[in-house]
């Protein structure tokens, strides 16, 4: 059963990667990258259970924190760039 979960997680990761590369907007790409990171944490957890390596769970938690902080940083960068662009073109918003 855990092998089925692993394969399904890998398929979902492939779809998220495709959306991250082909997404119509920047926000779709960021959301897909966040989903890919979340599925990576899930995959690490399943692998930790399959191989009896609880130390992989520490790696999964660390990766989850890095993923969360990274997504926040990217969104803040996009927001500041949009604010700078709106000031540069004189729209006032």
Account of the 3D structure:
The protein is mainly α and 93 residues long. It has a single domain, classed as Helix Hairpins. Helix content is 87%, strand content 0%. The protein has helices at 2-22, 26-51, 55-88. The protein is elongated and about 55 Å long.
Key words describing this protein structure:
single chain; 93 residues; elongated; mainly alpha; Helix Hairpins; 3 helices
Topology diagram in text:
Blueprint: H1 2-22, H2 26-51, H3 55-88
Helix pairs in contact: 1-2, 2-3
Sheet-strand content, in percent, reads: under 5%
The count of helical stretches stands at 3
Secondary-structure element order, as H and E? HHH
Task: Report low-confidence residues grouped into runs of 5 or more.
Answer: none
> What is the C-level CATH assignment?
Mainly Alpha
The major sheet is characterized as: none
Number of domains: 1
Which structural category do the helix and sheet elements fall into?
mainly alpha
Mean pLDDT: 90
Quote the CATH topology.
Helix Hairpins
| Radius of gyration computed on alpha carbons | 17 Å
Using the 3D structure, state the CATH architecture.
Answer: Orthogonal Bundle
DSSP strand tally: 0
Distance between the termini: 53 Å
Principal-axis shape equals elongated
Query: Helix fraction?
Result: over 70%
């Amino acid at each position: 059963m855990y092998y089925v979960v692993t394969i399904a997680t890998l398929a979902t990761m492939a779809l998220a990667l495709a959306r991250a590369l082909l997404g119509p907007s920047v926000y779709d790409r960021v959301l897909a990258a966040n989903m890919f990171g979340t599925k990576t944490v899930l995959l690490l957890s399943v692998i930790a259970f399959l191989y009896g390596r609880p130390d992989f769970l520490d790696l999964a938690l660390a990766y989850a924190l890095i993923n969360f902080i990274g997504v926040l940083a990217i969104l803040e960068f996009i927001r500041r760039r949009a604010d700078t662009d709106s000031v540069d073109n004189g729209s006032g918003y």
